[in-house]
């Protein structure tokens, strides 16, 4: 904001209008407890009338607090990471913080280091890492950060992590198929370099083993609907009567291919996904899937990084099976 002379409005102007000292204005801006309520209200009213906006960089210099958290993302294109980033921003705002984001190439150590340097240069008080790849976590271990770090989507593979129990979620999905009577269950897996894909595959194998079953087939996809569509023939050839897809996009692509081939879902092949995309409830048939609570994940991660204690939120969030219409008893 500028005044009539074109000069930027500053603390001096706020102090003059409110009838207080510049030091008092500074105390209000920095949320100092030793300010009378009436004085605080007068200063805030003057700030509103003048259109004064606090310069966070200046504030950080004076108080060593920027009220800003950093987000480092190595992959923001998939549903889970992108949904988490939006939820982090909302949770941070609710806690009185802003966010600054930097994106890095998970295959490039220099890119990860540069992203961290950028965030630290912004004066962030902590960094939330949306890191679905093991290699990003390894690179972080080689970088000097100097602020608290909490990771998301690390699937229990990082001591700094806050996450959803991916193994338990996969077991819910496979259990639902087995409970319907299926013994020939296949897995449409996520990319091998994704930690959550690894954990979901682990849960798939664990639940089958617990029920005395063996996998009919595992096909590795890339999270896309196209990958699910292209996997359909191999899954049919293997004689699968049920498929656990590691995410909803692949599940929906698979269902589309089965419909195109005249294969009834769930009459001939049952399908369960993971994530609970908004579209999952409107598919044909409506997709049974595993829901992750991204809002709660973000809330815990933000609380942990503000407290500088990832262990405070170390307990994994338990996902939920959302039962819809894509499971039925096997036809043969």
What does this structure look like?
With 332 residues, the chain is of the alpha/beta class. It has helices at residues 11-18, 22-29, 37-50, 56-63, 79-94, 109-121, 134-140, 166-179, 195-210, 225-237, 248-260, 294-307, and strands at 68-73, 98-103, 127-130, 149-152, 161-162, 185-189, 218-220, 242-245, 270-272, 289-291, 320-322. It folds into three domains: 11-54, Orthogonal Bundle (434 Repressor (Amino-terminal Domain)), CATH 1.10.260.40; 68-164 and 295-313, Response regulator (Rossmann fold, 3-Layer(aba) Sandwich); 166-292, Response regulator (Rossmann fold, 3-Layer(aba) Sandwich), CATH 3.40.50. The longest helix is centred in the first third of the chain and has 16 residues, at 79-94. Residues 9-63 form the HTH lacI-type domain. GO terms for molecular function: DNA binding. InterPro entries: HTH_LacI, LacI/GalR-like_sensor, Lambda_DNA-bd_dom_sf, Peripla_BP_I.
Largest sheet: 5 strands, parallel
State the domain count. 3
Backbone structural class: alpha/beta
CATH superfamily of the largest domain: Response regulator
The CATH topology assignment of the largest domain is Rossmann fold
Helix content: 40-55%
**Which percent band covers the strand fraction?**
5-15%
What number is the mean pLDDT?
A: 87
Question: Which stretches are poorly predicted, pLDDT < 50 over at least 5 residues?
Answer: none
Could you say what the CATH architecture of the largest domain is? 3-Layer(aba) Sandwich
Shape: elongated
Record the strand order, biggest sheet: 2-1-3-4-5
Number of strands: 11
Name of the CATH class of the largest domain: Alpha Beta
């Amino acid at each position: 904001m500028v005044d009539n002379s074109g000069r930027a409005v500053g603390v001096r102007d706020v102090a003059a209008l409110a009838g207080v000292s510049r030091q008092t204005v500074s105390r209000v801006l920095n949320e100092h407890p030793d300010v009378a309520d009436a004085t605080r209200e007068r200063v805030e009213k003057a700030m509103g009338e003048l259109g004064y906006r606090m310069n966070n960089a200046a504030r950080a210099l004076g108080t060593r607090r920027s009220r800003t958290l950093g987000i480092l993302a190595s992959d923001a294109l998939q549903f889970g990471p992108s949904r988490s980033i939006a939820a982090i921003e909302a949770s941070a705002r609710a806690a009185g913080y802003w966010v600054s984001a930097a994106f890095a190439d998970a295959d490039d150590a220099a890119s990860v280091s540069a992203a961290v340097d950028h965030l630290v240069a912004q004066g962030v008080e902590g960094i939330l890492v949306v890191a679905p790849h093991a290699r990003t976590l390894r690179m972080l271990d080689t970088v000097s950060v100097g602020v608290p770090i909490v990771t998301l989507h690390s699937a229990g593979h990082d001591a700094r992590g806050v996450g959803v129990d991916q193994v338990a979620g996969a077991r819910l999905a496979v259990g639902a198929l087995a409970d319907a009577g299926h013994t020939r269950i296949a897995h449409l897996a996520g990319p091998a370099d994704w930690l959550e894909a690894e954990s979901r595959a682990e849960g798939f194998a664990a639940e089958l083993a617990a029920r005395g079953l063996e996998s009919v087939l595992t096909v590795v996809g890339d999270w896309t609907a196209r990958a699910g569509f292209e996997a359909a023939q191999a899954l049919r050839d293997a004689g699968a009567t049920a498929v656990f897809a590691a995410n909803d996009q692949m599940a929906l692509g698979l269902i589309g291919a089965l419909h195109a081939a005249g294969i009834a879902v769930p009459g001939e092949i049952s399908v369960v996904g993971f994530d609970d995309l908004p579209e999952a409830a409107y598919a044909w048939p409506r997709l049974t899937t595993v829901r992750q609570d991204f809002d709660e994940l973000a809330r815990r991660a933000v609380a942990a990084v503000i407290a500088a204690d990832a262990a405070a939120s170390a307990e994994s969030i338990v996902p939920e099976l959302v039962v819809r219409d894509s499971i039925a008893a096997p036809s043969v």
